[in-house]
Amino acid sequence: MATADDVESWRRAARIAAQARDLGARLAVPGMRRRELADRIEGFIREQGAQPAFPANLSRNVEAAHYTPSVDDDALLEPGDLLKVDVGAHIEGAIADTAITVEVGGGHRHDRLRRAVDDALAAGVAAVRDGVRVDTISRAIEDAIHRQGLKPVRNLTGHTIRPYLLHAGKAIPNVSGGSGETLEAGEYVAIEPFATNGAGAIEDGAFGNIVRFRQDPGPDSPLAASFARFRTLPFTARWVSPDEGARLKAARRMLQTYPVFVESGGGLVAQAEHTVLVQSGGAELLTLG
Question: Which residues of the chain have pLDDT under 50?
Fold first, then answer.
């Protein structure tokens, strides 16, 4: 819940996250390496005085989420790629999470998918207020996507956020009928619609190069320094030294791994996301940019 003492940290983290998202969108041009793009986004966040809340997710086409480049990933962006630029920044645990979908090369093949998630995001944010039923937000998102003749991804959701906890308990489904909860003033919430021209669901794919600690390994653990750095926020091997990486690999049972989410029917997926602060009369849109 927001307090007067910490809200400025959330706003600052949100400004940085929004700038990093927009930087990623500008740099997503044909021939750009996904690894370089991730490094540029994450480096910008650090230069601005924040830390990445999770590795830059650069999922494309049928990949919906949870892909970040590995250390040796040399894959290039190609014209027509439908790229999700999903980034997060935090300042001492105050987290902002935001995403945009771009068509690499600036074409118009995927305009309807991009419009669907942009419209759904606007509709979802407009529905946020103190006491609102989550299902009201979900219905607004679902209806906006259906108006474009597309399907919401039914098993992906938005989420509440708390300090150092990216998914804090309340889910915001992209389809109605999935939640009986309400939102309260002072909660931070990521509104996160996904739209597809496929089956309308995701399934687990290959490992997406993202992990997080399941729990505190303890002060005497060889992983204590790593936990102090990341806590339970997601991270990637690109961020650690070879020695630290070897220690983490040896203790992999302490880590949760993230698979890439892929569209179960082979459809293309678009995503848009803002972090908002729930208020009595509506929502403060923190990651507008």
Answer: 4
